[in-house]
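Note to self: keep these together.
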Amino acid sequence: MWKWLPAAVGVNVLLGIPGVVPVWLLWYYASNGPLADLGWTRREATENDGMLLWLLIVVPVNAAFLLVWWLANRPVRRRMALDSRMYWPAGALMALVPTFILMLVL
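Structure:
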């Protein structure tokens, strides 16, 4: 079980590098749409194309990333023999590590 731990960490952190793009797209959509409507953020001044266009971009990009992430993690999770309730949230957090690092650096 523990010999697969480096594989699990590696797969998720490496997939987290391109995963920065879907996270950014979600933030951009949320900050210019629902969060701006609630008054929690300000809309981008030049964003006047509407939110439907962004939704047409955000949904396929995030769906493709989640599909690749899930397909890459399935065999590793099986070999790790961990409970799904523990593996998948831990894998998601590991995939967010590159995003957190970028947020700290920039």
